[in-house]
Write a structure and sequence with these properties.
Strand order of the largest sheet: 1-2-3-4-5-6
Largest sheet: 6 strands, parallel
Helix content: 40-55%
Distance between the termini: 38 Å
CATH superfamily: Dihydropteroate synthase-like
Radius of gyration: 18 Å
CATH topology: TIM Barrel
Shape: globular
Structural class: alpha/beta
CATH class: Alpha Beta
Strand content: 5-15%
Number of domains: 1
Number of helices: 9
Number of strands: 8
Order of helices and strands: EHEHEHEHEHEHHEHEH
Length: 272
Protein backbone atom coordinates (compact mmCIF):
# COMPACT_ATOMS: atom_id res chain seq x y z
CA UNK A 1 0.00 0.00 0.00
CA UNK A 2 1.62 3.21 -1.20
CA UNK A 3 0.97 6.44 0.69
CA UNK A 4 -0.22 9.65 -0.94
CA UNK A 5 -0.58 12.41 1.67
CA UNK A 6 -2.46 15.34 0.17
CA UNK A 7 -1.73 17.48 3.22
CA UNK A 8 0.43 20.44 4.25
CA UNK A 9 1.53 18.91 7.55
CA UNK A 10 2.02 15.14 7.44
CA UNK A 11 5.02 14.15 9.52
CA UNK A 12 7.35 13.02 6.72
CA UNK A 13 6.18 14.56 3.45
CA UNK A 14 3.70 17.28 4.37
CA UNK A 15 3.18 19.78 1.58
CA UNK A 16 4.96 17.81 -1.16
CA UNK A 17 1.72 16.54 -2.73
CA UNK A 18 -0.79 19.18 -1.69
CA UNK A 19 -1.10 20.74 -5.17
CA UNK A 20 -3.49 18.74 -7.43
CA UNK A 21 -0.86 18.10 -10.10
CA UNK A 22 1.63 16.94 -7.46
CA UNK A 23 -0.93 14.54 -5.97
CA UNK A 24 -1.65 13.05 -9.40
CA UNK A 25 2.05 12.67 -10.07
CA UNK A 26 2.48 10.95 -6.70
CA UNK A 27 -0.29 8.48 -7.58
CA UNK A 28 1.45 7.73 -10.87
CA UNK A 29 4.76 7.25 -9.06
CA UNK A 30 3.25 4.85 -6.53
CA UNK A 31 1.69 2.75 -9.26
CA UNK A 32 4.84 2.74 -11.40
CA UNK A 33 6.83 1.49 -8.41
CA UNK A 34 4.52 -1.50 -8.03
CA UNK A 35 2.00 -0.69 -5.31
CA UNK A 36 -1.06 -2.92 -5.12
CA UNK A 37 -3.09 -0.31 -3.23
CA UNK A 38 -3.00 3.49 -3.14
CA UNK A 39 -3.85 5.09 0.20
CA UNK A 40 -4.91 8.72 -0.24
CA UNK A 41 -5.49 11.01 2.73
CA UNK A 42 -6.26 14.67 3.29
CA UNK A 43 -5.77 14.97 7.06
CA UNK A 44 -2.60 14.45 9.03
CA UNK A 45 -2.54 12.03 11.95
CA UNK A 46 0.81 13.25 13.29
CA UNK A 47 0.93 14.05 17.04
CA UNK A 48 -0.78 17.33 17.77
CA UNK A 49 -2.55 17.53 14.42
CA UNK A 50 -5.97 19.16 14.46
CA UNK A 51 -9.02 17.75 12.72
CA UNK A 52 -9.52 18.93 9.13
CA UNK A 53 -13.07 19.86 8.04
CA UNK A 54 -14.68 17.41 5.66
CA UNK A 55 -15.08 19.98 2.91
CA UNK A 56 -11.37 20.79 3.03
CA UNK A 57 -10.42 17.13 2.97
CA UNK A 58 -12.63 16.55 -0.06
CA UNK A 59 -11.11 19.51 -1.88
CA UNK A 60 -7.70 17.96 -1.30
CA UNK A 61 -8.30 14.30 -2.10
CA UNK A 62 -11.15 13.74 -4.55
CA UNK A 63 -9.15 14.73 -7.62
CA UNK A 64 -6.38 12.31 -6.63
CA UNK A 65 -8.90 9.56 -5.91
CA UNK A 66 -10.55 9.96 -9.32
CA UNK A 67 -7.16 10.02 -11.03
CA UNK A 68 -6.04 6.84 -9.27
CA UNK A 69 -9.30 5.08 -10.10
CA UNK A 70 -8.95 6.13 -13.74
CA UNK A 71 -5.55 4.42 -13.72
CA UNK A 72 -7.17 1.19 -12.55
CA UNK A 73 -5.87 1.45 -9.00
CA UNK A 74 -7.48 -0.03 -5.92
CA UNK A 75 -7.83 3.04 -3.70
CA UNK A 76 -8.30 3.37 0.04
CA UNK A 77 -9.33 6.73 1.47
CA UNK A 78 -7.48 7.57 4.68
CA UNK A 79 -10.02 9.54 6.71
CA UNK A 80 -11.93 9.61 9.97
CA UNK A 81 -14.86 11.49 8.40
CA UNK A 82 -17.95 9.57 7.25
CA UNK A 83 -18.75 12.33 4.75
CA UNK A 84 -15.31 12.18 3.16
CA UNK A 85 -15.45 8.39 3.11
CA UNK A 86 -18.81 8.43 1.34
CA UNK A 87 -17.66 10.87 -1.34
CA UNK A 88 -14.43 8.97 -1.96
CA UNK A 89 -16.27 5.66 -2.26
CA UNK A 90 -18.70 7.29 -4.70
CA UNK A 91 -15.65 8.40 -6.68
CA UNK A 92 -14.46 4.81 -6.97
CA UNK A 93 -12.40 4.05 -3.85
CA UNK A 94 -12.78 0.47 -2.65
CA UNK A 95 -11.79 0.84 1.02
CA UNK A 96 -11.75 3.23 3.94
CA UNK A 97 -8.66 3.44 6.14
CA UNK A 98 -9.92 4.67 9.52
CA UNK A 99 -7.08 5.72 11.83
CA UNK A 100 -9.46 6.45 14.71
CA UNK A 101 -10.63 2.90 15.55
CA UNK A 102 -14.22 3.86 14.64
CA UNK A 103 -14.50 7.01 16.69
CA UNK A 104 -17.19 8.03 14.19
CA UNK A 105 -19.70 5.18 13.92
CA UNK A 106 -20.93 6.62 10.63
CA UNK A 107 -17.76 5.34 8.95
CA UNK A 108 -19.05 1.78 9.34
CA UNK A 109 -22.49 2.67 8.02
CA UNK A 110 -20.96 4.27 4.93
CA UNK A 111 -18.67 1.30 4.31
CA UNK A 112 -21.52 -1.18 4.73
CA UNK A 113 -23.76 0.72 2.30
CA UNK A 114 -21.00 0.80 -0.33
CA UNK A 115 -19.96 -2.83 0.12
CA UNK A 116 -16.41 -1.62 0.67
CA UNK A 117 -13.56 -2.79 2.91
CA UNK A 118 -12.73 -1.15 6.23
CA UNK A 119 -9.27 -0.89 7.71
CA UNK A 120 -9.61 -0.26 11.43
CA UNK A 121 -6.47 0.99 13.12
CA UNK A 122 -6.07 0.66 16.86
CA UNK A 123 -5.48 3.89 18.74
CA UNK A 124 -6.60 5.72 21.86
CA UNK A 125 -7.71 9.34 21.78
CA UNK A 126 -7.06 11.72 18.88
CA UNK A 127 -3.87 13.16 17.41
CA UNK A 128 -4.78 16.55 18.89
CA UNK A 129 -4.99 14.99 22.38
CA UNK A 130 -1.45 13.73 22.32
CA UNK A 131 1.52 16.01 22.05
CA UNK A 132 3.88 13.11 21.48
CA UNK A 133 2.71 9.59 20.69
CA UNK A 134 6.19 8.19 21.36
CA UNK A 135 5.98 9.24 25.03
CA UNK A 136 3.05 7.00 25.85
CA UNK A 137 3.53 5.66 29.41
CA UNK A 138 5.16 2.26 29.83
CA UNK A 139 2.32 1.22 32.11
CA UNK A 140 -0.34 2.15 29.58
CA UNK A 141 -0.89 -1.49 28.64
CA UNK A 142 -1.03 -4.54 30.87
CA UNK A 143 -0.10 -6.63 27.84
CA UNK A 144 0.23 -4.64 24.65
CA UNK A 145 -0.78 -7.46 22.29
CA UNK A 146 -3.71 -8.61 24.39
CA UNK A 147 -4.96 -5.09 25.12
CA UNK A 148 -4.61 -3.84 21.54
CA UNK A 149 -6.39 -6.87 20.11
CA UNK A 150 -9.19 -6.70 22.70
CA UNK A 151 -9.79 -3.00 22.10
CA UNK A 152 -9.69 -3.49 18.34
CA UNK A 153 -12.26 -6.29 18.65
CA UNK A 154 -14.68 -3.91 20.35
CA UNK A 155 -14.50 -1.59 17.34
CA UNK A 156 -14.75 -4.53 14.94
CA UNK A 157 -17.86 -5.81 16.71
CA UNK A 158 -19.44 -2.38 16.47
CA UNK A 159 -18.63 -2.17 12.76
CA UNK A 160 -20.14 -5.62 12.24
CA UNK A 161 -23.29 -4.61 14.13
CA UNK A 162 -23.58 -1.64 11.76
CA UNK A 163 -23.48 -3.91 8.73
CA UNK A 164 -19.81 -4.41 7.84
CA UNK A 165 -19.17 -8.13 7.21
CA UNK A 166 -16.27 -9.60 9.16
CA UNK A 167 -14.61 -10.57 5.89
CA UNK A 168 -14.57 -6.91 4.86
CA UNK A 169 -12.46 -5.89 7.88
CA UNK A 170 -8.71 -5.35 8.05
CA UNK A 171 -6.91 -4.97 11.37
CA UNK A 172 -4.11 -2.43 11.86
CA UNK A 173 -2.41 -2.58 15.28
CA UNK A 174 -1.49 1.11 15.03
CA UNK A 175 2.28 1.22 15.41
CA UNK A 176 3.23 4.52 17.01
CA UNK A 177 -0.34 5.50 17.86
CA UNK A 178 -0.86 5.70 21.62
CA UNK A 179 2.20 3.46 21.93
CA UNK A 180 5.76 4.30 22.80
CA UNK A 181 8.75 2.81 20.97
CA UNK A 182 9.06 -0.16 23.32
CA UNK A 183 5.38 -1.02 22.93
CA UNK A 184 5.47 -0.67 19.14
CA UNK A 185 8.57 -2.86 18.91
CA UNK A 186 6.95 -5.50 21.12
CA UNK A 187 3.91 -5.53 18.84
CA UNK A 188 6.24 -6.03 15.89
CA UNK A 189 8.15 -8.86 17.56
CA UNK A 190 4.86 -10.57 18.46
CA UNK A 191 3.09 -9.87 15.19
CA UNK A 192 2.22 -13.53 14.61
CA UNK A 193 0.15 -13.38 17.80
CA UNK A 194 -1.64 -10.28 16.51
CA UNK A 195 -2.39 -12.01 13.21
CA UNK A 196 -3.70 -15.12 14.95
CA UNK A 197 -5.91 -13.15 17.33
CA UNK A 198 -7.33 -10.89 14.63
CA UNK A 199 -8.45 -13.68 12.28
CA UNK A 200 -8.75 -11.05 9.53
CA UNK A 201 -6.03 -9.60 7.27
CA UNK A 202 -3.57 -7.42 9.17
CA UNK A 203 -2.16 -4.18 7.79
CA UNK A 204 1.01 -2.64 9.21
CA UNK A 205 2.18 0.94 8.80
CA UNK A 206 5.66 1.37 10.26
CA UNK A 207 7.21 3.41 7.46
CA UNK A 208 9.32 6.36 8.66
CA UNK A 209 7.67 6.40 12.10
CA UNK A 210 9.41 7.81 15.13
CA UNK A 211 9.65 4.52 17.05
CA UNK A 212 12.19 3.39 14.43
CA UNK A 213 14.67 5.84 15.95
CA UNK A 214 15.17 3.23 18.67
CA UNK A 215 17.98 1.98 16.40
CA UNK A 216 19.14 5.42 15.21
CA UNK A 217 18.35 8.16 17.75
CA UNK A 218 17.64 11.51 16.17
CA UNK A 219 17.13 10.22 12.62
CA UNK A 220 14.69 12.43 10.71
CA UNK A 221 11.71 10.77 8.98
CA UNK A 222 13.39 10.82 5.57
CA UNK A 223 16.49 9.18 7.09
CA UNK A 224 14.64 6.10 8.39
CA UNK A 225 14.57 4.15 5.12
CA UNK A 226 16.73 1.27 6.33
CA UNK A 227 14.71 0.71 9.49
CA UNK A 228 11.46 1.11 7.54
CA UNK A 229 12.47 -1.58 5.05
CA UNK A 230 13.66 -3.93 7.80
CA UNK A 231 10.32 -3.48 9.56
CA UNK A 232 8.39 -4.13 6.35
CA UNK A 233 10.30 -7.34 5.60
CA UNK A 234 9.82 -8.54 9.17
CA UNK A 235 6.07 -7.98 9.26
CA UNK A 236 5.59 -9.46 5.77
CA UNK A 237 7.41 -12.59 6.93
CA UNK A 238 5.32 -12.74 10.11
CA UNK A 239 1.86 -12.63 8.63
CA UNK A 240 1.00 -9.05 7.62
CA UNK A 241 -1.24 -9.05 4.54
CA UNK A 242 -0.75 -5.34 3.78
CA UNK A 243 2.34 -3.20 4.32
CA UNK A 244 1.67 0.55 4.16
CA UNK A 245 4.80 2.39 2.99
CA UNK A 246 6.11 5.65 1.58
CA UNK A 247 9.02 4.07 -0.32
CA UNK A 248 7.23 1.59 -2.54
CA UNK A 249 9.95 0.40 -4.91
CA UNK A 250 12.63 -0.09 -2.25
CA UNK A 251 10.24 -1.93 0.06
CA UNK A 252 8.86 -4.14 -2.69
CA UNK A 253 12.38 -5.07 -3.80
CA UNK A 254 13.32 -6.05 -0.25
CA UNK A 255 10.19 -8.15 0.36
CA UNK A 256 10.37 -9.87 -3.03
CA UNK A 257 14.05 -10.72 -2.66
CA UNK A 258 13.51 -11.97 0.87
CA UNK A 259 10.83 -14.35 -0.41
CA UNK A 260 13.06 -15.61 -3.22
CA UNK A 261 15.95 -16.22 -0.85
CA UNK A 262 13.93 -18.11 1.74
CA UNK A 263 13.95 -21.52 -0.06
CA UNK A 264 17.68 -21.14 -0.81
CA UNK A 265 18.41 -20.42 2.84
CA UNK A 266 16.37 -23.44 3.94
CA UNK A 267 18.24 -25.70 1.50
CA UNK A 268 21.63 -24.34 2.57
CA UNK A 269 20.83 -24.89 6.23
CA UNK A 270 19.62 -28.41 5.52
CA UNK A 271 22.75 -29.25 3.53
CA UNK A 272 24.96 -27.81 6.25
Amino acid sequence: MGVCNVTPDSFSDGGRYLAPEAARARVDEILAEGADLVDIGGESTRPGALAVPATEQMDRVLGAVRHAVSRGACVSIDTTSPEVAARALDAGACAVNDASCLRERGIATVVASAGAALVLMHTRGTPADMAEFGRYPDGGYKDVVGDVCAEWELAAAEAHALGVPRQALVMDPGFGFAKNARQSLELMVRLREVVARASVPVAVGASRKSFLTAVDPGAAPMDRLGASIAAAVHVAEHGAAIVRVHDVRATRQAIDLSRRLRPAVSVAVGEG
